[in-house]
Amino acid sequence: MLIYIVKRIMLMVPTLFGIMLITFVVTQFVPGGPVDQMIALLEGHGGPGSEVAGSSMYRGATGLDAERLDELKRLYGFDRPPIERFLGMMADYLRFDLGTSYYYQQDVVDLVIARLPVSMSLGLWTFIIVYGVCVPLGITKAVRDGSTFDVVSSTLILVGYAIPGFVLGIALIVLFGGGSFWNIFPLRGLVSDDWAELGVVAKVLDYLWHMVLPITSSAIGSLAVMTMLTKNSFLEEISKQYVLTARAKGLDERTVMYKHVFRNAIIPIITGFPGYFIASFFTGSLLIETIFSLEGMGLLAYQSVLNRDYPVVLGTLYFFSIIGLVSRLLSDLSYVLVDPRIHFSSVDRHG
């Protein structure tokens, strides 16, 4: 297994390099870059994020002299050849120096750290709810396959799956956020304005109070996939010969289900656990964050692309690509942990 892990880590390097190279090349051809946007600002045509995508460097420079334009290029590092800029950027990234945001004028690392609490709150609670609800629900549905409970629960979760999260979020705001019916839950932020003045218990309750609507909107769509995966995995195992043999020996249904079926049926569910768990800390939902006025990673990514904030775009891509590659490796290794029958010896021998 050690050789397999080393090989996977070695493959991560060219994969990560390729991801960054392709993205960097694409950014060189996207119109309306930071220099164009600053020119538009200086000429009074708008600010960062304004619509300058149709302008070219030549047209944008018509109101500025060559010396001022060269200063702007040096300010953003565009006075150097692209290959030099890319290699310099990667050298900085190896030290986890992700640069400074053009738009926010903050270090990218500090900017990410400031936005992570929102994404972590949404992702982690969604993760807990999805696994905490779907696994027992899926098992129950498999045991009671075809019953009224199975049919009704399948209908409800499929309806929830069919409703987009942002649509559900808007409906919840209208119903419970002081729209047209009840004013029960707050509409913005992770905590109240007076959160720092509250006691420990009151702080926890205030935080959970703010999270109810966005987490509900975020989690509902994921329930159907995980529930049906759990159900189908258990149904497949229940139909196998060893289950019939265990029942023929006189074992009670509970023992058959949780001692024999469970450890085999849970494998495809558990193996996705590491990747999903890690991703839940760092992913953001643009629409959910926008609807509930939460400044998380989803909104940051969108604004960075819109504003051509390349240090944030490339820096966060580098960081999250590493997270994604590591989580994929952990997902593969989890197969061995949950099922000793699986090993990587053949992979180690044949590459």
UniProtKB/TrEMBL annotation:
The answer to whether the entry has keyword Lyase is no
Where do the ABC transmembrane type-1 domain residues begin and end?
A: 116-331
Quick check: keyword Secreted in the entry?
no
- Which superkingdom is the protein from? Bacteria
CDD domains according to UniProt: TM_PBP2
- Which keywords, in A-to-Z order, does the entry hold? Cell membrane, Membrane, Transmembrane, Transmembrane helix, Transport
Q: Which InterPro entries match?
A: MetI-like, MetI-like_sf
* Membrane-related topology note: Multi-pass membrane protein
Q: Which cellular compartments is it found in?
A: Cell membrane
Where do transmembrane segments lie in this chain?
9-30, 122-143, 155-185, 207-230, 265-292, 312-331
| UniProt similarity note | Belongs to the binding-protein-dependent transport system permease family.
Q: What is this protein called?
A: Microcin C ABC transporter permease YejB
- Organism, by scientific name, is Desulfofustis limnaeus
Q: What is the lineage of its organism?
A: Bacteria, Pseudomonadati, Thermodesulfobacteriota, Desulfobulbia, Desulfobulbales
